[in-house]
C-alpha cells in the first residue's frame, strides 16, 4: 500500500528546497491567526465590520481585507487601533 502524502510531508519537502520556507510559513500562519482573533473578537463584541471601522476611523473594506488577509500593508498603528477598540491583546 502506498504511503499517503501528508501536509507535513509537503512542508518538509518545501523546507528542504528552501531553508527559509519554514520561517515564511510560520510568519503567514501567525498573520492568519491574528486575522482570526480580530474577527472572532469583533463578532463576540457584537460589532459589524462597519461599526469597528467607524470606531477606528477607517472603512469597512479595510476591516474586511484585514480579516480576509487581503491587506498586506497593515501597520502596527492600525493593529493597535483595532486591539484598543476591541479591548483585546494580541501577541506578535
Describe the structure.
This protein has a single domain (21-86), classed as 434 Repressor (Amino-terminal Domain) (Orthogonal Bundle), CATH 1.10.260.40. α3 packs across α4. With 92 residues, it is mainly alpha-helical. Helix content is 66%, strand content 0%. The protein contains five helices and no strands. It is elongated. The termini are far apart. The model has no long low-confidence stretch (mean pLDDT 93).
Descriptive terms for the model:
92 residues, mainly alpha, 434 Repressor (Amino-terminal Domain), 5 helices, 66% helix, 0% strand, elongated
CATH architecture: Orthogonal Bundle
Nearest-integer average pLDDT: 93
Total individual domains: 1
Stretches with pLDDT under 50, minimum 5 residues: none
Number of strands: 0
Question: What structural class should be given to the helix and strand makeup?
Answer: mainly alpha
Please report the distance between the alpha carbons of the first and last residues: 43 Å
Number of helices: 5
CA-based shape:
elongated
Give helix and strand order, one letter per element, not per position.
Answer: HHHHH
How would you characterize the largest beta sheet? none
Strand content: under 5%
Task: Give the helix proportion (percent range).
Answer: 55-70%
CATH class: Mainly Alpha
Rg, nearest Å: 17 Å
Name the CATH superfamily classification: lambda repressor-like DNA-binding domains
CATH topology: 434 Repressor (Amino-terminal Domain)
Amino acid at each position: 500500500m502506498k504511503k499517503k502524502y501528508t501536509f507535513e510531508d509537503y512542508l518538509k519537502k518545501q523546507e528542504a528546497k528552501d531553508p527559509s520556507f519554514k520561517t515564511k510559513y510560520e510568519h503567514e500562519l501567525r498573520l492568519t491567526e491574528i486575522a482570526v482573533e480580530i474577527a472572532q473578537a469583533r463578532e463576540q463584541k457584537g460589532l459589524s465590520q462597519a461599526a469597528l471601522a467607524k470606531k477606528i476611523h477607517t472603512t469597512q473594506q479595510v476591516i474586511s481585507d484585514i480579516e480576509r488577509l487581503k491587506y498586506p500593508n497593515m501597520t502596527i498603528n492600525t493593529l493597535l487601533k483595532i486591539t484598543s477598540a476591541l479591548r483585546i491583546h494580541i501577541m506578535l
